[in-house]
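Shipment paperwork, digital attachment
Item: protein structure file
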Amino acid sequence: MPACTRRALLAATLGATASSLLWPGAAYAQKYPERPVKLTVGFPPGSGPDVVARLIGQKLAELLGQSVVVDNRAGAGGQIATQSVAKSPPDGYSLLLAEVGSISIAPPAFSKLPYDPLRELQVLTEVVRSDFLLVVPANSPHRTLAEFMNAHKGSKERVNFGTFGAGTPGHFGAELLGAAGNFPVEAVHYRNTGDAVSAIAKGEVAAAFVSTALGAAQVKGGTMRALASTAAARVPQLPDVPTFTEAGIQGIDVSAWFAFFVPTGTPQPIAELLARQLVAAVQSPDVKQKLIEAGFSVTGTSTEEARRMVAAEAPRWAEIVRRTGFKGD
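Attachment content:
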């Protein structure tokens, strides 16, 4: 063998050896994924987050060439699912679709949170956002936000608001609205979406904040009436519903974001691959259109943008929690 060829071969071998020593999982990453990836979501089948998980998960499976299995672990406003992934091996096979509640709201609201989202999880990309609607039962006497606020302003009697869990954006929306209208709020927490929707439709609660993705269909179906939206502009699905700003009430900023996370320590090449393919999945024309039709705003940010967003949300929600005085335990 010529000397130059031997030197080139030796250099290549030493380079590969050095790379393996720097990061032993390099060869492992080249084979990834070798088995199905589990995508955990903290809400039940049929809910808005579940729709996001399944639409993106199906496309992600096509891009990865491997199955993506959606695991619904509903309860505690997404905290059960978040804890599950936070404690999972950082091998790229545990993926979490999380939202603002379990990541940014829970730490200041719950002193005994069984996970640390900023330490145990790393964000890959923010994929969608969802605004909220203030809804009342279809048979409510209040047809506008002004009527609702005037009916309860200064009242000593608590106004029942249905929520999808303590410490969720909808819960804080109710507390902030009560503060704006000078009336006390009684939050009625439901364990699942179906029970909450049923309670609103039957008039068991006076009002609720529900995601646009969920509420738009219910309003069109005649089971609820929407009084206002937390969006910056009127939502296309409900053009007759004013925003809170249009109605003269500021500070009801409880929009929710959804982002994908993996356990901290997941090999960087795998995390980068997942981030790229997740953005490609959510930006694919068919998935993007279905998400928009479902009431979501599609984002698909870079990992660095997602990191900045999560970092900024922590102090913002800490201040909201402080203002409302809420403590989950």
